Amino acid sequence: MNERVAPVFRARLGDSVVGDSLDVLDTMEAETVDLVVTSPPFALLREKTYGNAAQSEYVEWLCRFAPPIRRVLKPTGSYVIDLGGAYQRGRPVRSLHKYRMLIRHVDDLGFHLAEEFFWHNPSKLPSPIEWVNKRKIRVKDTVNIIWWLGKTEWPKADVSRVLAPYSDRMKTLLKDPARFYTPKERPSGHQISSGFARDNGGAIPPNLLQFPNSESNGRYLQLCKTFGVDPHPARFPIALPDFFIRFLTDEGDLVLDIFGGSGTTGEAAERLGRRWRTIEIDPTFARGSLFRFVGDRSETDIRLLLDAVDQGRAPAIVPEQPGLFDAVG
Ligand SMILES: C[S@@+](CC[C@H](N)C(=O)[O-])C[C@H]1O[C@@H](n2cnc3c(N)ncnc32)[C@H](O)[C@@H]1O
After folding, report:
1. Whether the CB of 103 sits within 6 Å of ligand 1
2. How far apart are alpha carbons 272 and 137 in whole angstroms?
3. What is the pLDDT of residues 257-280, one digit of tens each?
4. What is the CATH number of the domain that holds 21?
5. Is the beta carbon of 282 within 6 A of some atom in ligand 1?
């Protein structure tokens, strides 16, 4: 990774960098990144109250990240972006920003839509209150769209690494295929062979991902409380980057999150043995993300690490020596 960027801290496999991603991306080498997985700030849109002008400004803003992302991605690389829904200001009419963003990325910015995913978050609260709770004219919006974009038409991917557990019915069938199943042609014309009853270790997952976003007792939140740090208000569940990192990268590959927030992507990558970098514009969020990498160190040791961050010494957390770290710089 390029050394012109000063990280806030380093973990075993990656680093957390503070800055505007547009600037940091410019310092990174071309064609080195295997996967960008990220969730942009929706707050930008909210501050501008979701007017039409604000929406097109937001789309333009998001599009500015596309050329530098394309530059740093390997030809086999993917750009995965999670986007929430929004209503237009004062009207029960949806914003089209996520579709406009997709079309710009495909028509003008050189990306290919490999597949769209839908993240169902059953723990999401109803909103906006006016349409959903008060007037009862809209249902709960519990699905985010995730665009999986390829730099080329052939981004690297391996479904066998994200197989879902078999259903109980399928497990029964696998135990004794002959009893439950005769190979034949379906009315649709599909030939279903006996290979259908082979145990592949799990089922091909659908593009509807179901992860609750209701983590309440993780180490990150616990340490935020202990050290009086406000937790990041818009985190995604670790299951989300975990899924795409396993699906789209190999061990040792480089994963990047350009809107790093609390470092969820970094934590997922570190656990999965991938190299990583998170870029976050707000230093307090980047500082808090340290909590994801301290393991079971004592409060005293974590305090020392935080002090090193605050003094700009970019500590390197040394996993082999719990409690110790190298103070770099
Ligand atoms: C929705 S949050 C990401 C949360 C993250 N996925 C997590 O789980 O913690 C988006 C983040 O992007 C950051 N951000 C906004 N503009 C940025 C920029 N130009 N460069 C880097 N980070 C930026 C915001 O400060 C915010 O923390």
Report:
1. no
2. 43
3. 999 999 999 999 999 999 999 999
4. 3.40.50.150
5. yes
